[in-house]
Amino acid sequence: MFSSFLTVAVMAGAASALSLSSQCQSTLAGVATSSDGSCLNAAGLVSLAVLGNSSSIVGPVNTWLGGFCSKTACTNATLASLVSTIVSGCSSDISSAGLGNVSTSTITSDVQTFYPAVRQMACLQDTSANELCVTETLSGIQNATGTLSINNIVSLVPQILAGSSANIPQNVTCSNCAKEAYNIFNNFFPTLLTSSDKSSVQTECGSSFTDGTQPSHITQTANGLSLAQNNSALASFAIKSTFASMVALASGFVVFA
């Protein structure tokens, strides 16, 4: 089953933020108000920071993404600065996650490599529903599983990552939004999806899901981009450390000191 990586990352980050150390929370709070954090609309995550553990994250995430997509893209220098600050302030949390042996330079390189694809996937919009794709996907998951609160995400994320959450219908996992997210991921990282992966996706969503064509009604809202524009010449990267790094950057701001 193919699901939008960013949707899962947002959910996983919201859950992981529950256990952040006070020092890490303070660091992220500082980043949220810094000039470096502006390109991530980090300050826009305050609505998530004050959200109750039983309240739906869908609305606040949608609000944050609207601001995020309107910002100009982060430069590599800004991403490097953000990584350096967060790695320094959240060192104990990173070690607890089993990534203490991953160097700052490796994390920086991975984040710089992965960020453009994440930004493009995050800012896809379904014009037929007049809704951002991440919001549409989160709403679909919520409709199938119940209120998508931080409390529920703790148990739901492992199921989705394992592909075992049978309650999520095909119209969510195989939507036009999901297809374009797949296209973007495959365009950026063609070697990461094996023939077995593609076969599994085709079994779930049909052969046309992986044909590379642009689905109808899906547009790009990221500032300065359109679906006709693609970035290339991306280096390979370690997927485990990249996933953890992007979770920390994209959604670690959920809880503040």
TrEMBL record:
Keywords: Signal. Residues 1-17 form the signal peptide. It comes from the Eukaryota. This is Uncharacterized protein.
